[in-house]
Amino acid sequence: MLAARPPPVARLRISCPFSHARAAHPIPSSISATVGQSGLRNVTTALTSRASLRSFSGKAPYGRESDGHRYGDEGHGCRDGSGSLLGVVGSGAHDIVGAYPASSCCRCYYSTAGRHALSSFNLARLRRKVPMLAAAATISDSPSPRHQVIQVNQTQVRGKKTRTTVKLEDLPQGMVEPPSAASETSSSSAQKQPQSQSQKQKPQPLPPLELEEEPSYPVVVLQARRNMQKFDNCVLLTRVGGFYELYFEQAEEYGPLLNIKVAQKKTNAGPVSMAGFPFYQLDRFLKILVQDLNRHVAIAEEFPNDVSGKVKSGGLMHTRRVTRIVTPGTLIDENFMDPYANNYVMAIHLYHDSPVSALSDDTESRQAGQHTTSRPPFDETGTVTPAVGAAATAATTAAPTRVGLAWLDLSTGHFFTQTTTLASLSSVLSRVSPREIVLDKALEPAYRDRDQQDAHPLFTILQEASCLLTYTPAPPREEAETEGEGKSGTGLREQLAEWEPYLESEIPEATADQFTDVEVQAGSLLLHYVRDRLQGLSMKLQPPVRYETSSVMMIDKNSMRSLEIKQTLRDGVFKGSLLHAIRRTVTQSGARLLTQWLIGAPSTSLEVINFRQELVARFINDEDLRDAIITLLRRSHDSQRLVQKFALNRGDADDLLRLANTIRATEDIVNLLSSAVKKSSSDSGEGESQTDCLAQLISRISLDQPLKLAKKIRDAIDEEGLNAQHEIEDNEAGEMIALAQEIVKTEGTPEDSNLLPKAASSVTPPKTAKSKSSTKPQSLRDHYDPEKEFFIMKPGASTALTRLHAELAQLKRDKETLTESLRTRFNAPSLTLRWSPGLGHICHVKGKDARLPPKSVDDPSLEGSGTPAGEQPRTLTTSRTTRSFHHPQWTSLGEALDAVRTQIRTEESRVFALLRGRVVKNLVKLRRNALVLDELDITTSFAKLATEQGWVRPTLDNGTRTVIIGGRHPTVEGGLAEQGRTFQKNDCLIGGGTAVTHLVPPPSGLEDDVDTAKLTSPPNARNPQPSRVWLITGPNMAGKSTFLRQNALITILAQVGCYVPADYAHLGIVDAIYSRVGSADNLYQDQSTFMVEMLETAAILRQATPRSFVIMDEVGRGTTPEDGTAVAFAALHHLVTVNRCRALFATHFHDIVELVARHGLRVEDGGPDGAVDMYCTDVEEDGRGGFVYVHKLRKGVNRQSHALKVARLAGLPEQAIRVAQQILQESPKQEQHMTQDQEDTTKSETTAVVG
After folding, report:
1. Which of 26, 87, 1003, 1199 could form a disulfide with 1150 if both were Cys (CB 3.0 to 4.6 A apart)?
2. What fold does the segment set 605-679+692-743+786-852+873-945 form as a domain?
3. In the CATH scheme, what is the code of domain 970-995+1025-1200?
4. What is the Cα 585 distance to its own chain's centre?
5. What is the pLDDT of residue 731?
6. According to the model, what pLDDT value does residue 310 have?
């Protein structure tokens, strides 16, 4: 209680907001006098030119609500110029609370009289701080320390009410600046004012207010709520018993998407939305959330509580914490993963001092970085030469923005890095196809502005790639480390050393020296992100492999799409693609490696290509060896992902058995290869056997330690017990599916049947007519019955297991003895000893034995039976036909059985952990062996493919020549074969250097098809210079695009190491394939069809080198004929004179032919630029309206596109056809083209034609 208050006196109200801008004048900005107990009058005296009023809480300016108080009503806190709190004042009913240090609180405080007191120190400080106030008022110290007020010396007279109006714009707005670290005097502040203004720090927000107490939810719900707040960007799945559950708004949002019911859980804090599903359906719903909806999912598992944990949780047996965050790019062993494709997560790092500074570059520098090439100009031999022409000069002088990339597949442990440019980033993304891309958290604000005109080009590229973006804070790095070093320095070595705990072996010194700074930063960001997703789960990755662009053929994004390597262009499906046409692998890991060879890394190394071709040739010649290896490969499993499971501490007993089977299959394959090598040695001599390709494969396989591991696994794992356990699980699943199917048939709709698992359609309900109970699922008692459990380890797996199994066998015999004894004692033949979750160990009787309770030991009829005194059976449940009761002997024996079973489980876990540790110790050897098996899988599939399709082995060299005789399209040929049609072969002879006849001999068996006289012509013949570019004309639907694509695909197959669909092929190594085929627009990016075409053409002309192979079809089609002709010829001219590469150029602009002749680009014109030859397709007509396309190329020009024939085939109305014919007949160019056609045909008949 407060002391008696003195008579009402006028009290001074201090409204003293702080202002660092006036640090030299620590005088309050305004003084308000409040007179009377009810605050009836406010008189404001302005001490400065401008009022600076701001709430101490930092949440609202003067006159607005702040932290639950309204200025002038209940309370307001004020600071002086040095940042100290002068006081908290309120209405007239409240006293002024004195000057407290600014650090003592973080919100407005107010108090009634005597709530707080001004200390002597604060009173003196207040007088010193407010000299004008000291002159006008007396701060009196009350005898009571709890009642101190400021009294005004002059008598205040109540006057009329006044109102002061302040405009909103006059009030200071924005963030409240923090107080200085220490209060300084006014004089020191005045001296340091210029310096403080120049070095003024950026305002920072005040510390957040303390959160209110959490609602009184149940502990399980409260744990889920906290996890949702901690992992706010994830969908939280909380394990509760046999279910995974969602709560609150996540249940409402994702319940309908997952097609599960959303219920309301009643709690003391109100209803809580919740939804759940059985734990064994986790993979099903993870697929929907992660793969279909691209969500991050945090999985919170149950862990037993210790004693203190049970007390804190109110007696709960379990606590729940997040053990893993599942994202689209960090899948490990989920059942919904694509087994034939890698699952990559990629990190991208820009070359800038800080990620944010990258976004402040001007538009001109961005365009320069985006439109430059990373390939210098080359001459025809591949050596670097000075740039030719203005375009080449601009390409070499521009400075591209370097980008560091790092990507890994967590399911296999593969880890890659690469340095590229923004211009090449889209092609890399198309090649790698990452499921998730990780960026620095600092880039997230800039991504929100990606739609603005000056947005960074990185986001445009990522948006076109349709990749899932994730932002994560960058790992801390040394300040001394800068990205200007270019290559690995001391700082980079330290960062690489931080990778070692996550790698199975150290990074070789030679490889470590090659890493660039941007690669290391990207790799660190990636590992930091993956480690956070795994939530402490250990991982072992393979050492990072640097992706060297110089050792592989580059295939850009547009070429990948137009050549239909991964999927078809029209429908985007796998069937019909090149990969679908050649894949004959029998293992999942072999299929992934084939995809990597074909899409990611067609080799440019002759040594690598020839080695693969030697293996294919060996398996073609030895068909028995090939079939035996394929059979053994079918017995193996996906070793890459199996081993990685154990590296992530996840594998189970089935995985151990699969690994042991794979090791045994590897041993059998090695024995087969060794026998083949010995046979080859005896037939060909010892010298050839030493260099045999099979011997090289054998030398890369290490089996000593893996075979010991396989033996230990087979000696430890009880395969029969595992099979029995799986059979029970399958039966349970089948019964549940059958029950669901039966319910849907009787009560559901056809739409409901679509919601059932796919296996439901193939499951037939059990055929029993005795009772309906046969289709019911297993009871809870049967599910937890210890007698139905199977052990995964053999009794001889360890000494302890041998002893424990002996004890268990003895206890089971004791149980049988006790059962017979109790049956005799209670005269109940139906008595059985059971266990139930609710009753424990019970004796169960049924039938007539259940009608009477069991006789007690006091019954005279049981005297002398040897029953211990005091043993009294206790009845638990009764019914008309059954009775259950406890018996101490069975309870004691049952507890002993449970204890032994628990010890066996514990020992099995220990043995399993030892086996898993052995697998991790053999990690490197097992992965190397798996890679050899994958290569065998690919090469045997290539041999099988070549045998089935009649493909031939190509010859490759370091020249710049392409000679293909009788080439065919690998996918179109297969499609025609299904229709019973044949494919028209075509030849392609282009490239620089010497004539083809001096490079290769005529192919055997083709003397009838090839003009051998022309092939053997001397160098001084009429046409000694070969053509580097073919200009192809002809009608629509006559196969021009097919011819262009088939030669590009043959080149890719040859450098993969595969045989090719041709009668003969001799190819010079190609460093890049570029394709400009088809038409499409990009309206979202405001790009028309012609704009997209020009972008693709520009990329080709900037990047192609003399070793590149280019195909261009219908360049310039999206504009007027005149402009299109000009653009098309300009592109052709650039390919001939600047890029000087091998190219196939198809067009319907026939005026290009005259332009080529006028500029001296034809082969017969000679000179350094004479490199263009003319070829065409044709149409044969029967004179009665019938026609047939001639897909065979001939030399010459065909100026008739025959567009109306295609229009008639497409079903164009006949009236429209007649109008088009009339317009064509009236065209003045029609007769000119027909005359020119005849001249070209005459010339072609006198010119040598190959094929």
Report:
1. 1199
2. MutS, DNA mismatch repair protein; Chain A, domain 3 (1.10.1420)
3. 3.40.50.300
4. 26
5. 64
6. 64
